[in-house]
Design goal:
six-stranded mixed beta sheet, four-stranded antiparallel beta sheet, elongated
Length: 599
């Protein structure tokens, strides 16, 4: 399997602001709105079948009661038999096929909108503990969740159309019976829900008592427990406890079964009452000469069809009420904060041009944390300057990188790149940046795609790819791979750690840019190789502004300026030589302590 298309279908015209219930449902009709509308219309047209069937039944009864010659009855009889016996199966099969097609386009729209949202969402929201699980649930619950809601809404509409068509066919009689059936069905559904709730409460209590009784019995029968039970003289107490709990359990089961039978009988009674009231209503209309004997005879069958539709309607409504949280979750995902994008015509950072960087009194605290990751940090970087950020874990080095790349927004102060705030033009900044991180990604793509993924649209630039492969020393890795550059990467396990490191080097080299960010990409290798790797990067990107994060201080010798961070504040700043002149300084002390590991 070759991974070639890593692009994403974008749904146009979908607002990512907070939506209402119908606003969320509307996202399902973005891909094929006309086609989806036609399929829904077809399903609604099929909802007229019950009314048509009842109509032909009435015609048939009228013909029989009027002693119409059998030759005239045959045609109507055949149509009725067709609608009663064959049409339901055929119509259900047709509706099933239509629903499959409709669900396909609804699912495509829903997932496209969510993926489009993910592409625009800020990093701190993607790192949020709840958002990834919500997104996963939105996808995983597709058929049973949001698509289930779509389908139940369509089914509700079908039921309403069926009832409306029957009411139009029978007018006063139809409207009256439908109102009776809906009223009693609501009562019946409420009784059923109450019964289910009580059943759940009893089930929990019964389950807990059964567990306890089994535990007591197991304790008494366990061979290894026998000496201690006998020694403490608690055998009789445990048996008595088991007997009491068993009696309590049996009494609870009897009570539960009694209440369950009572509830079932009451629900059954309501069903019979619904039919009885409908027949009484029809009888009253007949006695009052509102309907004829023919209509009354045919309507007896219609009552049962109406009851079935009402039961289905309440079932669909109950499903929607039970699963409304899915709509809320989708709405919450679509309402998450997005990154600010540069407006059209406002791009000012030319590609492959070294930018100037300035941090002006920047303070930042991560969500749900009291202490600041950075406090009142200020420094400037001139174009082409190479700056190293050093300090212990938690000193704020990676936070500076995040702010620089526009992942986060400072609570106070400004992060400026060529005079513009980084978080207001993140895409523009990253488009001009080559970065390599300590935890570089291992994409489930081909080897080639893993190298060119950052500039996928430029994948046919053969010379650029060849240069990146040669620079990273990947020739041997490619030669040993099963399918060369087309080798698929499965779960990141196709290549060793060292080979992956070279792939990540080549990826950074292929991307290029006027700003270079190296965030400890080589923390696990020996110091000598790390210095060599950094020198290689600096030589390659000599015409760029560079920021290097490292725990290993000798690497700082190749940088113009060193910023030593401690507790989110700048403790020292200067060149390697300048900082070493402060013999009691934090950088000088740490450098001397590490020097013997490198030389």
């Amino acid at each position: 399997m070759k991974h070639r298309n890593i692009g994403m279908h974008k749904v146009r015209g979908v607002s990512m602001k907070k939506k209402g219930y119908f606003g969320v449902l509307k996202i399902g009709f973005q891909v094929k709105p006309v086609f989806s509308g036609i399929m829904i219309l077809l399903i609604l047209m099929l909802a007229l079948i019950p009314a048509i069937e009842i109509y032909f039944l009435n015609e048939l009864i009228g013909m029989v009661s009027s002693l119409v010659p059998y030759q005239q009855i045959v045609g109507v009889l055949l149509l009725y038999i067709l609608l009663y016996y064959l049409a339901p199966e055929i119509m259900e099969s047709v509706k099933y096929v239509i629903r499959l097609m409709l669900n396909h386009y609804l699912d495509m729209s829903m997932q496209s909108v969510i993926m489009e949202k993910i592409a625009r969402i800020s990093l701190r929201n993607l790192e949020n503990g709840t958002l990834p699980s919500k997104i996963s649930h939105a996808f995983n619950s597709g058929k049973a969740g949001l698509l289930g809601i779509y389908e139940n809404i369509v089914n509700m509409a079908v039921s309403v159309v069926s009832l409306a068509s029957i009411s139009l066919l029978y007018r006063e009689a139809g409207c009256g019976v439908i109102l009776i059936c809906i009223g009693v069905t609501i009562w019946k559904e409420a009784a059923h829900k109450k019964s289910v709730d009580k059943d759940h409460i009893f089930s929990v209590s019964i389950e807990e008592l059964e567990r306890y009784c089994k535990a007591l019995k197991a304790m008494l029968l366990e061979r290894k427990n026998a000496p201690e039970i006998l020694f403490n003289g608690v055998r009789e107490d445990l048996i008595r406890e088991w007997g009491e709990k068993k009696q309590e359990l049996d009494a609870l089961k009897i009570k539960h079964n009694a209440l369950k039978r009572k509830s079932e009988f009451f629900i059954y009674f309501l069903g019979q009452l619904r039919t009885l009231l409908s027949f009484i209503f029809i009888g009253v209309l007949y006695v009052g000469n509102v309907i004829s004997m023919t209509v009354m005879s045919g309507f007896v069958y219609a009552v049962f069809r109406i009851e079935g539709v009402c039961d289905s309607l309440m079932g669909y409504y109950s499903f929607l009420a039970k699963n409304r949280h899915i709509i809320a979750e989708i709405e919450e995902i679509l309402a998450f904060e997005e990154e600010s994008g540069a407006a059209e015509g406002e791009l000012t950072l030319a590609l492959n041009t070294a930018p100037a960087i300035e941090f002006k009194n920047v303070s930042y605290a991560y969500p749900n944390r009291v202490e600041n990751a950075l406090t009142n940090v200020s420094f400037c970087m001139h174009p082409y300057e190479k700056v190293a950020l050093v300090g212990e874990n938690g000193s704020g080095k990676s936070t500076i990188i995040r702010l620089l790349l526009g992942y986060d927004v400072p609570q106070s102060g400004k992060v400026l790149i060529n005079g513009r705030e980084a978080h207001l033009c993140p895409e523009e900044v990253r488009r001009n940046t080559a970065a390599m991180f300590q935890d570089y990604a291992r994409f489930e793509l081909s080897l080639k795609d893993n190298i060119i993924v950052s500039r996928y649209e430029e994948k046919n630039m053969g010379q650029r790819l060849d240069d990146a492969i040669k620079w990273a020393g990947l020739e041997e890795v490619i030669g040993g791979a099963k399918d060369g550059l087309d080798t698929d990467v499965v779960h990141g396990g196709t290549f060793s750690g060292g080979q992956w490191q070279k792939i990540a080097f080549a990826r950074t080299r292929f991307r290029g840019g006027g700003l270079i960010v190296l965030d400890e990409p080589n923390a696990a290798v020996d110091a000598e190789y790390e210095v060599k790797m950094y020198r290689q990067f600096m030589e390659l990107f000599s015409n760029a502004t560079a920021v290097v994060v490292s725990h290993r201080l000798p690497v700082c010798q190749i940088c113009d300026t060193i910023i030593y961070l401690h507790g989110g504040k700048i403790l020292e700043i200067g060149s390697h030589r300048e900082l070493l002149e402060h013999e009691d300084g934090a950088y000088a002390n740490l450098f001397r302590a590490q020097a013997e590991l490198y030389f």
